[in-house]
Specification:
- The chain contains six helices and ten strands; from the N terminus they run H-H-E-H-H-E-E-E-E-H-E-E-E-E-H-E.
- With 206 residues, the protein is an alpha+beta fold.
- The protein has a five-stranded antiparallel beta sheet with strand order 5-6-7-8-9. A three-stranded antiparallel beta sheet has the order 4-3-10, covered by helices on one side. The protein has a two-stranded antiparallel ribbon with strand order 1-2.
- A hairpin with a 7-residue loop joins strand 3 and strand 4.
- Helix 2 crosses helix 4.
- The protein starts with a helix and ends with a strand.
């Protein structure tokens, strides 16, 4: 082989990607785009207010505490929501909700988003305690993440074929005690938590 042929076969160091990781930068950018989308939508809705019972932001340890109790990793979009807004119960100053066929007038308004951090002086305040409240009524992969103030929940599937999807659970259609927990009294709302946030609208005066 002559010198010219040998030179053509050589790969310059700056073009050697043998140590690269497929999807490395995509994994970093995908959640960030979800966060930006949620932040923008929440700003349009007037922002979220907090009750003031927890004086700090949610941490990875708080989110891990929830995940340990439910036995699954939370969907990424919802994890970012908790870390940014979910230390405690949060609410809108405006009347904010989403379209749902089974609700009166076809609209369910959000009373509060449930926080990740327990508050000892308040019963059934955080995600884990709310999950325990519905234990036996819904499958184990379902986590309540918000409520309407009337005993109904917005729920998130955290495992299984529908992981990441958002549902509305009507407590007035609770199964009989002899039945196995199922999703038959739940209505599909959104394909992801981020998609759910983008569906929210202000309904003041409507």
């Amino acid at each position: 082989m002559n010198q010219e042929e040998n030179h053509e076969d050589e790969m310059l160091p700056e073009y050697d990607f043998s140590g690269g990781v497929r999807g490395k930068h995509y994994k970093k950018s995908a959640p960030q785009s979800n966060v930006e989308m949620m932040n923008k939508k929440l700003e349009e809705l007037g922002g979220l207010q907090k009750e003031g019972l927890v004086s700090r932001a949610a941490t990875e340890e708080d989110v891990s505490y929830v995940e340990q109790h439910i036995g699954s990793r939370l969907p990424e979009g919802y994890r970012f929501f908790l870390l940014q807004y979910g230390s405690e119960k949060a609410y809108f100053n405006e009347l904010v909700g989403f379209a749902i066929e089974t609700y009166p007038d076809g609209v369910c308004c959000i009373d509060t988003f449930i926080g990740a951090v327990p508050v000892e002086t308040h019963y059934c305040y955080d995600l884990v305690s709310h999950r325990k409240e519905i234990e036996g009524y819904l499958p184990n992969n379902i986590l309540p993440v918000a409520d309407d103030g009337a005993g109904n929940y917005v729920c998130l599937s955290v495992a299984g074929d529908d992981a990441g999807q958002v549902y509305f659970w009507n407590h007035e259609e609770v199964r009989g005690i002899e039945e196995e927990p199922s999703c038959k009294n739940m209505e599909f709302v959104a394909s992801s938590f981020t998609d759910f946030i983008t569906k929210l609208q202000i309904y003041n005066g409507k």
